[in-house]
Structures are given as structure tokens and as C-alpha cells.
Amino acid sequence: MLTVRKDAVVVGLGAFGSAALWRLATRGLNVAGIEQHGVGHDQGSSHGGTRLFRIACMEHPGLSPIAMKSLELWTSLSAETGETYVRQTGLLYVGNPDSKAITGPQAAGVPVELLTHAQVVERQPQYNVQPGQIGVWDPGAGICYPERNVRAHVAAAQRLGADVHTNTNVLAIEGTTVYTPTLAIEADQIVIAAGAGLRHFVPDLPLKHVPTPVNWFRPKDSFALEKFPAFVWDFSDEMGLWGHGSAEDYAVKIGAHPVDTVNVEDAVAQAFPSLDPIPFDVKPCHVTDSPDEQFLVGRLSEHVTVAGGDSGHGFKHCAGIGELLAQIATGEPTYCSTDFMNPHRFSGEPGRPPNRSAGLGA
């Protein structure tokens, strides 16, 4: 088996991992990335043509700086390549005044516009807005493009000299060495961003695999993107929806949650009566949830950093997470607080994870 030496190696080149590889490579490091499938594959949670991009993030106020960093980095990369990585159409949050969809964006610390019930009804006649519900408009939000962006991250890293090993399984991570069937990579720093596979490498992290369907609906004029921009809707206490309208290369996309109790056809029929509620295409997405639905990003040991627990809202942040991973791995100060993402937070002991997996770290 051939042994090579690297400054850093990234395991998994989906959303977080591809961005980490890119941001490490920009620092002039000798880096390698390993992906068990091809770049931009459809076997994880970084596919499906589009993802929502939100700046006023309702899940945690600490996420907004990461979304803005992603926008900054993608805008810079777009200027270099000529590709579009974010389309800022704005995004509408809808819900009762005390719902997370309304209170969360207002607490995000970025400019938003509060809309009355009447204003929501006037702006979005497609919606069956429930009595008392109001809206919050996130003007900098929109959509981004998972496969395109992942491929762009990896291509940018390769232009800077990164080695990329696709269709390659990682057999083991022992100390500071990553083993594949044909190669042993010794590295000063290892970043593990393996999506649902993170549980395999670090089984003590409290992650849950949640298969989640991505649903596409037949477009019609009133549901084109310019008339039906991205949205997140707390329709009721039992049901939430998210999605966006159609454009030149994709149809109407709508998801419903919780995925184990809500039938998407019934949900769409209730929420958008004029849209055909039968999806014409459904693709699986392998979401990985953490107990508090926040990411797990940070060091496990002196030499190992992890990123996972996307909890269904990770892609919009991935470029910013990649920058954080590069900063953490190289010992730089981070551009924002990462305490709320600390992977040790469930262990009861801030300095280490529970029952640290054998072989990881040194």
C-alpha cells in the first residue's frame, strides 16, 4: 500500500467537505479529499437541483453570519468562474405570530420586513393563508444549487493543487492516518464530513439518519419563481412546508414535515389549492439530524475535526462551514462563534466526546 503525506485530508466531499477542501486549499496547504461516490452525486444530502438559501435563519441567531459568509464566498467564486451559485429572490416566512417561522427570523439580527396577514394574502394569492397568520420577508434569501456548488468547490480546490480521490472508500481512520484500499494518507489534520456516514466513523456522536423525500410538482404560471419565491411556512402546529417556484431548468419544489407524519400530497392540497398536489418526481435525500437540530462542527481531538448533523438546513451554510473548518483545522481564529455547534455539547464534558471512538485523534 502506498503511503503519502499531506497537511490535511478531508473525508467526504459533499456540502461541508467539498467546501472545507476548497478553503483549506486556498491557504496553500497540501490537501487531499476522499469521496466514496463521484463529485456532486445523488446518494447523500447534497443533491436535488436546488436548496433554499436563507440569511435570516430561524433555527439559531448564530447561523446568519455563516449564511452571509457563504454568500460572500460564493459571490467571489462566481466572479471567478462565471457560474451562478446563489439566486437571491427573497424568501417569505409565514406562520402564527408566536411560531418559530415568525419569531426566529426576527431574532436573527439581519434586516427583515414584517408583513400583516392582509399583505401576505395580497402578495401570495396562491397561499391558503390561515386566519391570524402573518409573514416575515427575508430579502437577501433565495435558492442555491447543490450539485453545481459542490462541483465548483472541488474544482476550485483542484485548481489550487488539491488531490481528489473519488469512488474511494475509507476503510479506517487510525490516529492521523486515513486508509483506503490502495492508499494510506498521513496528515497533520483530518476533517471528517461524511454526511450520514459520519456515524460510522464517530459512532458516539448522537446523530440520526432521516431519509427525506424531495418532491417536484408540475409548473404553472402562477407558481413560477418570480411569482412564487422561496418560502418556509408553519402551516399548523402539526405541519410545516417549504419550497420555491419553478424556473427555466427546474419545476416547483415543495417539502413537508415532519416527514413521518405528514403526507405531502395532502399538505400541498391544503396549502396551495390551485397547484396539482401529485408530485411528478420524488428523490430521496439522506438528512442527518442532531438532537437539537444544530450542526456538529468542531474538534474531536488535536488532529481531528468533524462537521455533520445538517438537520435538513445545512447546504445554505456549507461554504461558510467550510471556511470555519479550515480555520479550526489550521488554528486560526474563527470569523464567528461556533459554541452552539460544539460536537462535545451532548457529552456532559466540554473537553471531549462521550466514549471517544478508538483510533480517532491522538
UniProtKB/TrEMBL annotation:
Listed GO MF terms: flavin adenine dinucleotide binding; sarcosine oxidase activity
Database matches in Pfam families: DAO
Keywords of this entry: FAD, Flavoprotein, Oxidoreductase
Entry-linked Gene3D superfamilies: D-Amino Acid Oxidase, subunit A, domain 2 (3.30.9.10), FAD/NAD(P)-binding domain (3.50.50.60)
Region (Disordered): 342-362
Known cofactor(s): FAD
FAD dependent oxidoreductase domain ranges (all copies): 7-327
UniProt-listed InterPro entries: FAD-dep_OxRdtase (IPR006076), FAD/NAD-bd_sf (IPR036188), MTOX (IPR045170)
The keyword Oxidoreductase is annotated on this UniProt entry: yes
The protein's name: FAD-dependent oxidoreductase
Organism of provenance: Kibdelosporangium aridum
